[in-house]
Amino acid sequence: MTEPILEVTGLTKEFPIGGGFGRRKETLVAVDDVSFSVLPGEVLGLVGESGSGKSTTARCVMRLIEPTRGTVRFAGEDLLALRGPRMRRVRRGMQMVFQDPYSSLDPRMKVEDIIAEGMVIHHVRSGAAARRARVRELLELVGLRPDHLTRRPANFSGGERQRIGIARALALDPRLLICDEPVASLDVSIQAQILNLFKDLQQELGLSIVYIAHDLATVRHLCDRIAVMRDGRIQEIGDRDQIYGAPRSEYTKELIEAVPIPDPIRQREKQERGAALRRAAKAGPPAEVPTPAVAKAARP
Protein backbone atom coordinates (compact mmCIF):
# COMPACT_ATOMS: atom_id res chain seq x y z
CA MET A 1 0.00 0.00 0.00
CA THR A 2 1.33 3.43 -0.95
CA GLU A 3 2.28 5.58 2.03
CA PRO A 4 0.82 9.14 2.15
CA ILE A 5 3.23 11.93 1.35
CA LEU A 6 1.31 14.14 3.80
CA GLU A 7 -0.57 12.87 6.84
CA VAL A 8 -2.38 15.27 9.17
CA THR A 9 -3.88 13.89 12.39
CA GLY A 10 -5.92 15.68 15.04
CA LEU A 11 -4.73 19.12 13.92
CA THR A 12 -6.10 21.88 16.17
CA LYS A 13 -5.38 25.60 16.27
CA GLU A 14 -6.71 27.85 19.00
CA PHE A 15 -6.37 31.62 19.15
CA PRO A 16 -6.78 33.57 22.42
CA ILE A 17 -9.34 36.35 22.19
CA GLY A 18 -10.58 38.95 24.63
CA GLY A 19 -9.14 39.22 28.10
CA GLY A 20 -7.51 42.20 29.82
CA PHE A 21 -8.99 44.83 32.15
CA GLY A 22 -10.59 42.15 34.30
CA ARG A 23 -12.33 40.38 31.43
CA ARG A 24 -12.10 36.63 31.15
CA LYS A 25 -9.79 35.35 28.44
CA GLU A 26 -11.54 33.23 25.81
CA THR A 27 -10.35 30.95 23.02
CA LEU A 28 -11.34 30.79 19.37
CA VAL A 29 -10.96 27.31 17.89
CA ALA A 30 -10.13 28.00 14.25
CA VAL A 31 -9.16 24.42 13.37
CA ASP A 32 -10.78 21.62 15.36
CA ASP A 33 -9.35 18.08 15.27
CA VAL A 34 -8.74 17.98 11.49
CA SER A 35 -7.34 14.80 9.94
CA PHE A 36 -6.60 13.97 6.31
CA SER A 37 -3.90 12.48 4.11
CA VAL A 38 -2.53 13.06 0.61
CA LEU A 39 -1.04 10.28 -1.51
CA PRO A 40 1.90 10.82 -3.90
CA GLY A 41 0.61 12.39 -7.11
CA GLU A 42 -2.84 13.05 -5.64
CA VAL A 43 -4.75 16.34 -5.67
CA LEU A 44 -6.86 16.91 -2.55
CA GLY A 45 -9.38 19.75 -2.54
CA LEU A 46 -10.05 21.51 0.77
CA VAL A 47 -13.33 23.35 0.36
CA GLY A 48 -15.48 25.55 2.58
CA GLU A 49 -16.85 29.03 3.10
CA SER A 50 -14.69 31.93 4.25
CA GLY A 51 -13.86 31.46 7.92
CA SER A 52 -14.17 27.67 7.82
CA GLY A 53 -10.51 27.17 8.79
CA LYS A 54 -9.02 26.16 5.42
CA SER A 55 -6.22 28.73 5.25
CA THR A 56 -5.36 28.29 8.94
CA THR A 57 -5.07 24.55 8.33
CA ALA A 58 -2.70 25.19 5.41
CA ARG A 59 -0.54 27.56 7.46
CA CYS A 60 -0.33 25.06 10.31
CA VAL A 61 0.71 22.31 7.89
CA MET A 62 3.44 24.57 6.50
CA ARG A 63 4.34 25.72 10.03
CA LEU A 64 3.89 29.34 9.08
CA ILE A 65 1.94 29.33 12.33
CA GLU A 66 2.29 26.75 15.10
CA PRO A 67 -0.69 24.46 15.73
CA THR A 68 -1.98 24.04 19.26
CA ARG A 69 -1.87 20.25 18.98
CA GLY A 70 -1.92 17.44 16.47
CA THR A 71 0.64 15.85 14.16
CA VAL A 72 1.80 16.66 10.63
CA ARG A 73 3.96 14.10 8.84
CA PHE A 74 5.55 14.88 5.49
CA ALA A 75 7.41 12.11 3.65
CA GLY A 76 7.59 10.20 6.93
CA GLU A 77 9.03 13.13 8.93
CA ASP A 78 7.22 14.63 11.93
CA LEU A 79 7.26 18.29 10.91
CA LEU A 80 6.22 19.59 14.32
CA ALA A 81 9.24 17.95 15.95
CA LEU A 82 11.81 19.42 13.53
CA ARG A 83 13.98 22.45 14.21
CA GLY A 84 16.78 24.37 12.52
CA PRO A 85 18.63 23.02 9.47
CA ARG A 86 16.67 19.75 9.41
CA MET A 87 13.39 21.65 9.27
CA ARG A 88 14.71 23.80 6.39
CA ARG A 89 15.82 20.72 4.49
CA VAL A 90 12.45 18.97 4.80
CA ARG A 91 10.46 22.12 4.00
CA ARG A 92 12.21 22.43 0.64
CA GLY A 93 9.93 19.60 -0.46
CA MET A 94 6.70 21.47 0.27
CA GLN A 95 5.91 24.91 -1.09
CA MET A 96 2.93 27.26 -1.02
CA VAL A 97 1.11 29.32 -3.65
CA PHE A 98 -0.73 32.20 -2.00
CA GLN A 99 -4.12 33.67 -2.81
CA ASP A 100 -3.29 37.25 -3.68
CA PRO A 101 -0.69 37.62 -6.46
CA TYR A 102 -0.57 41.38 -5.81
CA SER A 103 0.62 41.20 -2.20
CA SER A 104 2.60 37.93 -2.29
CA LEU A 105 5.30 39.28 -4.64
CA ASP A 106 7.80 41.92 -3.55
CA PRO A 107 7.15 44.91 -5.86
CA ARG A 108 10.79 46.04 -5.60
CA MET A 109 12.27 42.79 -6.92
CA LYS A 110 12.72 41.69 -10.51
CA VAL A 111 11.06 38.48 -11.66
CA GLU A 112 14.40 36.69 -11.89
CA ASP A 113 15.22 37.51 -8.27
CA ILE A 114 11.73 36.57 -7.03
CA ILE A 115 11.89 33.12 -8.57
CA ALA A 116 15.55 32.50 -7.68
CA GLU A 117 15.26 33.67 -4.06
CA GLY A 118 14.50 30.21 -2.69
CA MET A 119 17.43 28.72 -4.60
CA VAL A 120 19.75 31.30 -3.04
CA ILE A 121 18.43 30.71 0.49
CA HIS A 122 18.67 26.91 0.21
CA HIS A 123 21.95 26.94 -1.77
CA VAL A 124 20.43 25.19 -4.77
CA ARG A 125 22.17 25.45 -8.16
CA SER A 126 25.15 27.47 -7.07
CA GLY A 127 26.17 30.22 -9.44
CA ALA A 128 24.19 33.00 -11.05
CA ALA A 129 24.33 31.42 -14.52
CA ALA A 130 22.86 28.11 -13.32
CA ARG A 131 20.11 29.86 -11.39
CA ARG A 132 19.23 32.09 -14.35
CA ALA A 133 19.00 29.05 -16.63
CA ARG A 134 16.64 27.38 -14.15
CA VAL A 135 14.52 30.53 -13.88
CA ARG A 136 14.17 30.58 -17.67
CA GLU A 137 13.01 26.96 -17.61
CA LEU A 138 10.45 27.74 -14.94
CA LEU A 139 9.12 30.78 -16.80
CA GLU A 140 8.58 28.65 -19.88
CA LEU A 141 6.96 25.93 -17.76
CA VAL A 142 4.31 28.33 -16.41
CA GLY A 143 3.67 30.01 -19.76
CA LEU A 144 5.78 33.18 -19.48
CA ARG A 145 8.61 34.43 -21.70
CA PRO A 146 12.34 34.75 -20.94
CA ASP A 147 12.21 38.51 -21.58
CA HIS A 148 10.05 38.81 -18.44
CA LEU A 149 13.16 38.16 -16.33
CA THR A 150 14.08 41.78 -15.79
CA ARG A 151 10.59 43.17 -15.22
CA ARG A 152 8.92 43.89 -11.88
CA PRO A 153 5.49 42.68 -10.68
CA ALA A 154 3.80 46.00 -11.50
CA ASN A 155 4.29 45.25 -15.22
CA PHE A 156 2.13 42.12 -15.09
CA SER A 157 -1.55 41.27 -14.92
CA GLY A 158 -3.01 39.30 -12.00
CA GLY A 159 -2.91 36.02 -13.91
CA GLU A 160 0.71 36.60 -14.94
CA ARG A 161 1.68 37.44 -11.37
CA GLN A 162 0.13 34.22 -10.16
CA ARG A 163 2.19 32.33 -12.77
CA ILE A 164 5.28 34.00 -11.31
CA GLY A 165 4.20 32.86 -7.84
CA ILE A 166 3.77 29.31 -9.13
CA ALA A 167 7.22 29.40 -10.77
CA ARG A 168 8.71 30.58 -7.47
CA ALA A 169 7.05 27.67 -5.65
CA LEU A 170 8.44 25.19 -8.19
CA ALA A 171 12.01 26.52 -8.03
CA LEU A 172 13.03 24.07 -5.27
CA ASP A 173 11.53 21.02 -7.04
CA PRO A 174 8.91 20.37 -4.33
CA ARG A 175 6.97 17.14 -3.97
CA LEU A 176 3.92 18.90 -2.49
CA LEU A 177 2.22 22.19 -3.35
CA ILE A 178 -0.28 23.82 -1.02
CA CYS A 179 -2.38 26.27 -3.03
CA ASP A 180 -4.42 28.68 -0.90
CA GLU A 181 -7.31 29.85 -3.12
CA PRO A 182 -4.88 30.75 -5.93
CA VAL A 183 -7.59 31.84 -8.40
CA ALA A 184 -10.01 33.59 -6.02
CA SER A 185 -8.83 37.11 -6.93
CA LEU A 186 -8.65 36.49 -10.71
CA ASP A 187 -11.17 36.97 -13.52
CA VAL A 188 -13.21 33.90 -14.43
CA SER A 189 -11.47 33.46 -17.81
CA ILE A 190 -8.05 33.65 -16.13
CA GLN A 191 -9.16 31.22 -13.40
CA ALA A 192 -9.68 28.52 -16.03
CA GLN A 193 -6.19 29.09 -17.44
CA ILE A 194 -4.53 28.81 -14.01
CA LEU A 195 -6.54 25.69 -13.15
CA ASN A 196 -5.45 24.09 -16.43
CA LEU A 197 -1.86 25.06 -15.62
CA PHE A 198 -2.06 23.30 -12.24
CA LYS A 199 -3.47 20.20 -13.90
CA ASP A 200 -0.70 20.18 -16.53
CA LEU A 201 2.01 20.70 -13.88
CA GLN A 202 0.60 17.94 -11.69
CA GLN A 203 0.64 15.48 -14.57
CA GLU A 204 4.04 16.52 -15.93
CA LEU A 205 5.88 16.75 -12.60
CA GLY A 206 3.93 14.16 -10.59
CA LEU A 207 3.16 16.72 -7.88
CA SER A 208 0.93 16.17 -4.90
CA ILE A 209 -1.35 19.18 -4.33
CA VAL A 210 -3.59 20.43 -1.55
CA TYR A 211 -5.90 22.83 -3.38
CA ILE A 212 -7.94 25.19 -1.21
CA ALA A 213 -11.12 26.82 -2.53
CA HIS A 214 -14.20 28.50 -1.06
CA ASP A 215 -16.67 26.72 -3.37
CA LEU A 216 -16.99 23.49 -5.28
CA ALA A 217 -17.02 25.12 -8.71
CA THR A 218 -13.24 25.29 -9.17
CA VAL A 219 -12.19 21.93 -7.73
CA ARG A 220 -14.17 19.42 -9.79
CA HIS A 221 -11.85 19.70 -12.79
CA LEU A 222 -8.66 19.36 -10.77
CA CYS A 223 -9.09 17.30 -7.60
CA ASP A 224 -9.10 13.53 -7.08
CA ARG A 225 -10.59 13.74 -3.58
CA ILE A 226 -12.39 16.55 -1.76
CA ALA A 227 -12.60 17.42 1.95
CA VAL A 228 -15.40 19.77 2.95
CA MET A 229 -14.76 22.04 5.96
CA ARG A 230 -17.14 24.03 8.12
CA ASP A 231 -16.48 25.83 11.41
CA GLY A 232 -12.98 24.41 11.66
CA ARG A 233 -14.01 20.78 11.21
CA ILE A 234 -14.11 18.41 8.23
CA GLN A 235 -17.74 17.59 7.45
CA GLU A 236 -16.94 14.82 4.99
CA ILE A 237 -14.16 13.63 2.74
CA GLY A 238 -14.43 11.43 -0.34
CA ASP A 239 -13.51 11.02 -3.97
CA ARG A 240 -14.78 13.51 -6.52
CA ASP A 241 -17.61 11.34 -7.86
CA GLN A 242 -18.91 10.56 -4.38
CA ILE A 243 -18.86 14.18 -3.23
CA TYR A 244 -20.65 15.47 -6.32
CA GLY A 245 -22.88 12.45 -6.93
CA ALA A 246 -23.88 11.30 -3.45
CA PRO A 247 -22.86 13.83 -0.77
CA ARG A 248 -23.58 12.71 2.79
CA SER A 249 -23.44 16.09 4.53
CA GLU A 250 -26.27 18.62 4.22
CA TYR A 251 -23.65 21.35 4.11
CA THR A 252 -21.98 19.72 1.11
CA LYS A 253 -25.35 19.55 -0.62
CA GLU A 254 -25.80 23.29 -0.02
CA LEU A 255 -22.36 24.03 -1.50
CA ILE A 256 -23.15 21.97 -4.59
CA GLU A 257 -26.51 23.72 -4.96
CA ALA A 258 -24.70 27.07 -4.83
CA VAL A 259 -22.41 26.23 -7.76
CA PRO A 260 -23.50 28.49 -10.67
CA ILE A 261 -24.35 27.06 -14.11
CA PRO A 262 -23.10 29.06 -17.13
CA ASP A 263 -26.41 28.60 -18.99
CA PRO A 264 -28.78 31.31 -17.60
CA ILE A 265 -31.92 29.27 -18.35
CA ARG A 266 -30.60 26.15 -16.59
CA GLN A 267 -29.31 28.31 -13.73
CA ARG A 268 -32.76 29.86 -13.26
CA GLU A 269 -34.39 26.42 -13.35
CA LYS A 270 -31.88 25.19 -10.77
CA GLN A 271 -32.59 28.15 -8.49
CA GLU A 272 -36.36 27.65 -8.80
CA ARG A 273 -36.03 23.93 -8.09
CA GLY A 274 -33.86 24.63 -5.06
CA ALA A 275 -36.31 27.24 -3.76
CA ALA A 276 -39.21 24.78 -4.17
CA LEU A 277 -37.31 22.08 -2.26
CA ARG A 278 -36.49 24.52 0.56
CA ARG A 279 -40.15 25.59 0.81
CA ALA A 280 -41.23 21.95 0.92
CA ALA A 281 -38.69 21.13 3.61
CA LYS A 282 -39.78 24.14 5.67
CA ALA A 283 -43.47 23.21 5.39
CA GLY A 284 -42.79 19.65 6.54
CA PRO A 285 -44.57 16.51 5.35
CA PRO A 286 -48.10 17.01 3.97
CA ALA A 287 -51.02 16.28 6.27
CA GLU A 288 -52.52 12.86 5.76
CA VAL A 289 -55.83 13.10 3.93
CA PRO A 290 -58.39 10.40 4.96
CA THR A 291 -59.82 8.21 2.25
CA PRO A 292 -63.58 8.61 1.51
CA ALA A 293 -64.42 5.37 3.40
CA VAL A 294 -62.54 6.55 6.50
CA ALA A 295 -64.12 9.97 6.25
CA LYS A 296 -67.60 8.45 6.03
CA ALA A 297 -66.99 6.21 9.02
CA ALA A 298 -65.74 9.16 11.00
CA ARG A 299 -69.00 11.09 10.65
CA PRO A 300 -71.26 11.21 13.74
UniProtKB/TrEMBL annotation:
<dbReference type="InterPro" id="IPR017871">
    <property type="entry name" value="ABC_transporter-like_CS"/>
</dbReference>
<dbReference type="GO" id="GO:0016887">
    <property type="term" value="F:ATP hydrolysis activity"/>
</dbReference>
<dbReference type="Pfam" id="PF00005">
    <property type="entry name" value="ABC_tran"/>
</dbReference>
<feature type="domain" description="ABC transporter">
    <location>
        <begin position="6"/>
        <end position="256"/>
    </location>
</feature>
<dbReference type="GO" id="GO:0005524">
    <property type="term" value="F:ATP binding"/>
</dbReference>
<keyword id="KW-0547">Nucleotide-binding</keyword>
<dbReference type="InterPro" id="IPR003439">
    <property type="entry name" value="ABC_transporter-like_ATP-bd"/>
</dbReference>
<dbReference type="InterPro" id="IPR050319">
    <property type="entry name" value="ABC_transp_ATP-bind"/>
</dbReference>
<feature type="compositionally biased region" description="Basic and acidic residues">
    <location>
        <begin position="265"/>
        <end position="275"/>
    </location>
</feature>
<keyword id="KW-0067">ATP-binding</keyword>
<dbReference type="InterPro" id="IPR003593">
    <property type="entry name" value="AAA+_ATPase"/>
</dbReference>
<keyword id="KW-0813">Transport</keyword>
<comment type="similarity">
    <text>Belongs to the ABC transporter superfamily.</text>
</comment>
<dbReference type="InterPro" id="IPR027417">
    <property type="entry name" value="P-loop_NTPase"/>
</dbReference>
<feature type="region of interest" description="Disordered">
    <location>
        <begin position="263"/>
        <end position="300"/>
    </location>
</feature>
<protein>
    <submittedName>
        <fullName>ABC transporter ATP-binding protein</fullName>
    </submittedName>
</protein>
<dbReference type="GO" id="GO:0055085">
    <property type="term" value="P:transmembrane transport"/>
</dbReference>
